[in-house]
Amino acid sequence: YLVQKGHLDPKDLWEMMTPLNVALALALVGLSNFMATWRWVILLRARGFSLRLRDGFGLYLIGIFFNFALPGSVGGDVVRGYYLVAENPERRLDAALSIVIDRVLGLYSFFMLSLVAVALDFEFVSTHEKIRWVALMCFLVFAGLTAFFTIVFSHRLSHLFGLGFFERRIPVLHRIVTGIHHFGQDRKVIALSILVSLLTQLVTCTFFYQLGVTSGETAITFNAVLFAVPMGFLITALPIAPAGIGVGQVAFAYLFQAYLQKETQFGANSITAFQLSTVAWAFIGAILYLRRKKPKELE
Predict the structure, then answer these.
(1) Which DSSP letter does residue 72 get?
(2) How far apart are CA 263 and CA 160, in angstroms?
(3) How many helices (H) and strands (E) does the chain have?
(4) C-beta of residue 111 within 8 angstroms of C-beta of residue 145
(5) Tens-place pLDDT, residues 41-78
(6) Where are the alpha helices (DSSP H) in the chain?
(7) How far apart are CA 51 and CA 101, in angstroms?
């Protein structure tokens, strides 16, 4: 459909697939996934889990495989969380919360980078209505997440804002809030997780910027990448299509066209290149899944 409508040109992708470009793409995507794994392991170790980085990377790759096997790009989070819970049945809540907090921190860093891009190019953003509305939404979500972290990571603030009232009446909520408090006790761990997350997203953005340089798209600046890529990945997380395929093409095409104020296929081509690179790592995840001893529910 995208090809027939002229939103995606496979010829452009094929021309960019030189051995050097493919190797660089695989390396950048692999590094991004490895650093994302590191962020997750940091959170787990802070709660006393003994998961090795190598084992965590294996679980993360299995999750990537299931991102393509299930709708949306968060289906893999459910699978790797299920493995972790199955291997640590006495730590079910902490295992599940580590997945949620890891994912939210990843989104948080994306919005942070978007706001940096807005600040660096504020004059341009303020003079374009569509971009201005996207920037405003980005700021509101960032502010909301900041308030959320500030409240839920603080025992005192959570009670001050009335969470204690609901906790006393809903036992499940009390266990969840208590578990989140435990993750937020060490501020250094949270700060390090956010820093690693920012570095991870910068590596991902470098992939898109490098693709712009390779394809000769001189209009693709790092500011444009910082603005469009985070919002595009947020949209692909919606559970509509496996790994956001199709949804991501439309989202990235619109965001880059809106920012650059011209018709361009770079958005659709770049996210397709990223997804193809991720598929290669997903194959490794599939092999690890088939070789791994599985809980009965996953067999």
Answers:
(1) B
(2) 50
(3) 14, 0
(4) yes
(5) 988 888 888 888 888 899 999 988 988 877 655 567 88
(6) 10-16, 19-46, 53-69, 75-87, 92-120, 122-126, 129-152, 155-160, 163-169, 171-184, 187-215, 222-236, 247-260, 266-291
(7) 17
Identify residue 87 by its one-letter amino acid code. Answer: E
Using pLDDT thresholds of 50, 70 and 90, give the confidence band for residue 243.
very low
Q: Which residues contact 59 (CB under 8 A, 6 or more apart)?
A: 37, 51, 80, 83, 84
Q: Dihedral of CA 288/281/31/241: which sign?
A: negative
Contact between 105 and 193 (Cβ < 8 Å): yes
Q: Is the pTM of this model over 0.70?
A: yes
Length of the chain: 299
Q: What pLDDT digit, counting tens, does each position of 90-141 carry?
A: 778 888 888 888 888 888 888 888 888 888 878 877 887 777 887 888 888 8
